[in-house]
Amino acid sequence: MSGILYLVPSPIGNLQEVSPRVKEVLNSVDFVACEDTRNTSHLLSLLNINKKCISCHEHNEASASSNIIDQINEGKNVAYLSDAGYPCISDPGYILTKKAIEKDIKVVPLSGPNAFLNALVGSGIDTSHFLFYGFLDSKTSSREKELESLIDFPFTLIFYEAPHRINETLASMYKVLGNRKVTIARELTKKFEEFIRSDLKTLVEEKHDYIGELVIVVEKASLEKEDKDYILEVKKLIDSGYSTKDAINIVSILFRVNKNKLKKELM
Ligand code: SAM
Which of 193, 194, 147 lies closest to 169 in space, CA to CA? Predict the structure, then answer.
């Protein structure tokens, strides 16, 4: 009979957030697979757990996961951990999980720490519906294209970002999404945990020096937009001599509305 693949969350800062169940599973498995064997061995030694760790990270996940799956098929139970928070959330683990499911292996995710949920619930921004986006592209043009696809998204948006890129990212957000409420959640669960609750315009003007790990929570698209007749604006520009294509481009940039939606409505 094949074994079990446990997906085990690890602390995002505060070591007290390792649950009794996580410790029990780590003690019981035959071996641990992880993103970084040094980090996970360190965590295991703090928990007084002595287990063999094998590496399965972003760059070797495809090959390493086949070996892990073979061992589970031989009956071994395995815990998979990334460096922080949940595996598979902006971290490796998805390929391994998918392969395990394809082989009918039982997958058991344990509950535990995760940065974006802490950020969302502490943000003060609508929690009823949300999109976790993860990291945006580091290149400005690609990042702004990604943000354009989210302009009309009617739910709270959550992003991960590195401190050295956050000012550029906030500037792109302000440029593409317009002014919206934003919360930066910093150093969650750690000594210097902080929630900066503001709006994009203010943060772009103030240009803070952000240190540590960060999550950005952005308010959803404003419904007020729907009150405006954008097609009328496009038609006015066409009447004054602009081509249809240019008129659509101008209105989409000016009012931050989706170009394709304008095109469709104009048809
Ligand atoms: N798997 C993790 C999870 O479940 O949250 C995310 C890993 S991702 C590689 C790392 C990013 O998560 C960081 O760049 C930051 O955006 C966010 N993050 C992780 N720990 C954090 C913390 N303590 N405070 C704020 N953000 C954190």
Answer: 147
Residue 142 tokens read as 């690609």
* 217 touches ligand 1 (CB under 6 Å): no
Instruction: Give pLDDT tens digits for 187-211.
Output: 999 999 999 999 999 999 998 899 9
Task: Give the mean pLDDT of the chain.
Answer: 94
| CA 79 vs CA 12, 19, 109, 148: distances in Å | 18, 14, 10, 39
CA-to-CA separations, 29 to 24, 49, 78, in angstroms, rounded: 9, 11, 5
CB-ligand 1 contact for 80 (6 Å cutoff): no
Q: What is the dihedral of CA 33, 36, 39, 44, to 10 degrees?
A: 10
User: Could you tell me if the CB of 194 is within 6 A of ligand 1?
Assistant: no
Report helix, strand or coil for 7. Answer: strand
Q: Measure Cα distances from 174 to 44, 171, 262 in Å.
A: 43, 5, 21
Residue to probe by mutation, ligand 1, list 114, 116, 160, 194, most atoms within 8 Å of CB: 160
Q: Is 115 in the pocket of ligand 1 (CB under 6 A)?
A: yes
85 lines ligand 1 (CB under 6 A): yes
User: pTM for the whole thing?
Assistant: 0.86
Burial class (CB in 10 A: 0-12, 13-18, 19+), 264: exposed
pLDDT of the residue at 239: 87
pLDDT tens per residue, range 214-228: 999 999 987 555 556
Encode pLDDT of 124-165 as tens digits. 999 999 999 999 999 999 999 999 999 989 999 999 999 999
